[in-house]
Design a protein that fits this description.
The chain is mainly beta. Strands 13-21-18-15-16 form a 5-stranded mixed sheet, with no helix packed on it. A 5-stranded mixed sheet has the order 24-32-29-26-27, with no helix packed on it. It is elongated.
């Protein structure tokens, strides 16, 4: 006889036993079954690990000639029917039910008591049309007369906080990326194609992981997918710790590297992969790191072939996280686009992408929880998403009031020096002098290192080879971390270590009129 194989029919399992109700609704009662009482209807089945060809029901008490019907069971709802046998009215013990070898076993089964109300000895019951079936199940009140039982142990139990997995929908590719996964031991992330019923099907890939929490786990797929495909990612123990997966769908119970179960639920997550993005020949975005952005950021330049959206996300482990900004642009090139932010972004790394406006015009139709089904997807050029990563950060070093200041009087600089009346600094620092470039600091023309504390009448040598402006800007900059070397680039202020001091949000600097 062909031997049955045991499969898991879902990513949840409730290992509680007793009489349960099932059907189109738990406790369907009169509309779905035959009403009876506790005195004359009962079914008892105990666990029988190892059963594959038949199962034994310990006790059946039937109010009239009936059937014992055995189904697959996932802890909540019955699956396919595995077998049935007729029982007479009254009490029967050790009732054997032969199992259909062509229907896969599950770690749990459920046995139910049905009336034999039609052709005697022939089960006339259709799961798809229960109300019209003659041989319906018995109910006591709103509870069906049924008993679940185990035929195999499956899964490795863990505490709720010991194992977890999170993964979102993502574009087609050679790999899938698991957002975060947690395991108490060495383990595997195993990816399956999901079947039509939502159960794990063909295995498409796996990768080994270390104990603890891991982000951005990549699993290489064994075959190329070319359509929207539902997948399931599960966390399996690496029992031997050798990095080789010992798990076969045809022999779940006999496989060593079984999945983790937390609170009776398999540690697994369903997601989809599919075509993603709007492919165009030309689209671009340029944006620079920005200092002190609170309410908005400025995108230097964006080109879109059609009306589009500039979308700003927080960066989380290099991937888009919470959306914090949105602005619509027309087709063509847009310069200096201001994007309002939903919250203050200091300090933060941001991802700025350009999305097509393909759904309802002027309504942003993009859901991070359904990226594959959203119409306003991002543009891609030559396989790369049109996006820029910038850093929004604080600029300068905050210091308490009274710890840093600078005072300079109007003066004649014909001698090539500028005298700073007083400079106060909390540590060794720099006096920096700039030309006036339209009301903002321009080229640097003077530099002097001063000690911590108060310095009076400091003489700063000026670079007289540059044409002096009638106003000069004088600021106090920290000397960090390489002492004695001025490290400040006006073209890369955010990343320069020797930034100016700020007191109460105002730069320690002053403008002075010179002659």
């Amino acid at each position: 006889m062909k031997k049955n194989r045991i499969v898991a029919i879902g990513v949840t399992a409730t290992l509680a036993f007793g009489i349960v109700g099932w059907g189109t609704a738990v406790g369907a009662g009169e509309g779905m079954g035959v009403m009876t009482t506790e005195d004359n209807a009962k079914i008892v089945a105990t666990d029988q690990v190892g059963a594959t060809e038949s199962v034994t029901i310990d006790l059946v008490d039937a109010p009239k000639d009936s059937f014992v019907v055995v189904h697959q069971f996932d802890g909540t709802m019955p699956g396919e029917r595995l077998g049935y046998t007729a029982v007479p009215k009254g009490e029967s013990r050790s009732v054997t039910v032969e199992l259909d070898p062509d229907v896969a076993l599950t770690p749990q089964l459920i046995a139910a008591l049905h009336v034999d109300g039609g052709v005697r000895g022939t089960l006339e019951f259709n799961m798809e049309d229960m109300e019209r079936s003659t041989d319906r199940p018995y109910y006591i009140g709103e509870t069906e007369v049924a008993a679940p039982f185990k035929i195999a142990e499956f899964g490795i139990p863990v505490m709720m906080d010991e194992a977890a997995i999170e993964v979102g929908d993502q574009p087609l590719g050679e790999t899938v990326t698991i957002g975060t996964v947690t395991s108490p031991t060495k383990a595997f992330v195993v990816v399956h194609e999901a079947q039509a019923d939502g159960m794990p099907g063909k295995r498409l890939g796996y990768t080994a992981i270390e104990p603890g929490a891991t982000s951005g786990v990549k699993v290489k797929l064994t075959e190329e997918l070319d359509r929207i495909t539902p997948l399931i990612a599960a966390v399996h123990a690496d029992v031997e710790g050798d990095g080789r997966l010992d798990f076969e769908m045809e022999d779940l119970v006999g496989s060593a590297d079984q999945p983790f179960f937390a609170d009776g639920h398999e540690v697994a997550a369903a997601f989809k992969v599919g075509p993603f993005g709007v492919k165009v020949n030309r689209a671009s975005i340029e944006a620079s790191d920005q200092i002190g952005a609170e309410d908005s950021i400025t995108v230097d330049s964006v080109y879109a072939p059609d009306a589009a959206w500039i979308v700003v996300h927080k960066a989380v482990d290099g991937a888009p996280g919470e959306r914090v900004g949105l602005a619509r642009v027309e087709a063509g090139t847009s310069k200096d686009v201001e994007v309002e932010l939903t919250e203050e972004m200091l300090p933060e790394q941001l991802i700025i992408a350009v999305h097509a406006d393909r759904g309802t015009a002027e309504v942003f139709d993009f859901d991070m929880m359904d990226i594959l089904g959203s119409p306003d997807q991002p543009y891609f050029v030559k396989g790369e998403e049109v996006a820029a990563v910038i850093t929004v950060r604080e600029f300068g070093y905050a210091t308490p009031a009274g710890t840093s200041s600078v005072t300079v009087s109007a003066q004649d600089i014909m001698g090539g020096t500028l005298m700073v009346d007083e400079a106060i600094t909390p540590e060794a620092a720099w006096i920096v002098v700039h030309l006036d470039a339209g009301g903002a600091p321009g080229a640097r023309v003077g530099l002097l290192r001063i000690p911590a504390g108060t310095t009076h009448d400091a003489m700063v040598q000026l670079d007289m080879s540059k044409r002096m402006t009638s106003t000069l800007f004088v600021a106090i900059h920290a000397d960090r971390p390489e002492l004695g070397m001025f490290e400040f680039d006006m073209m890369d202020r955010v990343n320069s270590p020797d930034q100016p001091y700020f007191v109460d949000g105002v730069e320690v600097a002053t403008a002075v009129t010179v002659r």
